[in-house]
């Protein structure tokens, strides 16, 4: 690999709060090291179409506090094809771009790895997803903000639940990972938490709700991750409990996309700033196929392929805390 002079940055896959702070960090670090920075709009699709913009330290002012991504995000089926990636490579070469920083989730990293293998093009990943389902980092950018949004919403639901003796099923995001459900559930004092990693079983859910009722609780909150293993969606779960516990007035609330939006938390802004600096420093040093992450409050790098395949493990201790707290 030769000297790196011009670096492209893009956001890809699902957006998350703090992506703008990461873009800002990448751009300012490029300016600090006197490197040119190019923003790619709409992820890999924008790369294929050459939808580029020059980013300087000044034209990313006042974005650290903004949710979403100024570069937009997209999914691109064309980039999954060799023809699509060939077009993308040509666009990068025609614009004299020497390296790429991808802010996104594991799908976006997979695209980066495939592209690097085909064209030996330097790629560095920054984990930006609310799901926190990436190996090699304790936190992904956006996760902390999404958690706080979910807790805030559940607190409000609890006010109405306790006024009417209601049982609420609250669905939070997380198709494959229960991090938001487990942490928001414990943080908001949920009676039960249903996550994709653990099958609580419907009988145990009923037992637990009966126990909670007997212990004097007149209202309850059950937090359910989108991908819960019970085999029933949140509405079917509510129906099942209503049939078996007619004494409860059961309601469902799906938090949905509000969890992706909003002003990033201070934690996410600081995380994004730290990861962006390291990403540019790595690419300048001619390092490639790495993901920048955080472990024990230290910025570390992980092989990009390992970040994709390493899997994620739910914190068993937190599951135990949740069990004890619902006593
Ligand atoms: P989130 O975690 O929020 O879903 P993500 O980065 O995992 O984000 P994906 O939609 O899975 O989001 O991937 C984003 C894009 O990465 C895809 O639209 C596609 O363009 C590219 N991509 C994913 N997998 C591959 C692959 N195997 N080969 C080439 N490109 C890929």
Structure write-up:
The longest helix has 21 residues, at 143-163. The protein has two domains: 6-142 and 264-309, Rossmann fold (3-Layer(aba) Sandwich), CATH 3.40.50.450; 145-260, Rossmann fold (3-Layer(aba) Sandwich). The strands form two sheets. A seven-stranded mixed beta sheet has the order 3-2-1-4-5-10-11, sandwiched between helices. Strands 7-8-6-9 form a four-stranded parallel beta sheet, sandwiched between helices. By secondary structure, the chain is α/β, with parallel strands linked by helices. The protein contains eleven helices and eleven strands. A hairpin with a 2-residue loop joins strand 10 (290-295) and strand 11 (298-303). The site of adenosine-5'-triphosphate has 18 residues, from helix 4.
Outline of the structure:
The chain has helices spanning 19-32, 43-49, 82-94, 106-119, 143-163, 179-187, 202-214, 234-244, 266-284, 304-309, 316-325; strands spanning 6-11, 36-40, 52-55, 99-104, 123-127, 166-172, 192-194, 220-225, 249-254, 290-295, 298-303. The protein has 327 residues and is an alpha/beta fold. A hairpin with a 2-residue loop joins strand 10 (290-295) and strand 11.
Offer a few descriptive terms:
327 residues; alpha/beta; Rossmann fold; 2 domains; seven-stranded mixed sheet; four-stranded parallel sheet; 11 helices; binds adenosine-5'-triphosphate
Topology:
Elements: E1 6-11, H1 19-32, E2 36-40, H2 43-49, E3 52-55, H3 82-94, E4 99-104, H4 106-119, E5 123-127, H5 143-163, E6 166-172, H6 179-187, E7 192-194, H7 202-214, E8 220-225, H8 234-244, E9 249-254, H9 266-284, E10 290-295, E11 298-303, H10 304-309, H11 316-325
Helix pairs in contact: 1-9, 2-3, 5-6, 6-11
Bound molecules: adenosine-5'-triphosphate.
Adenosine-5'-triphosphate binds at residues 12-14, 44, 75-76, 79-80, 104-108, 110-111, 114, 129, 131.
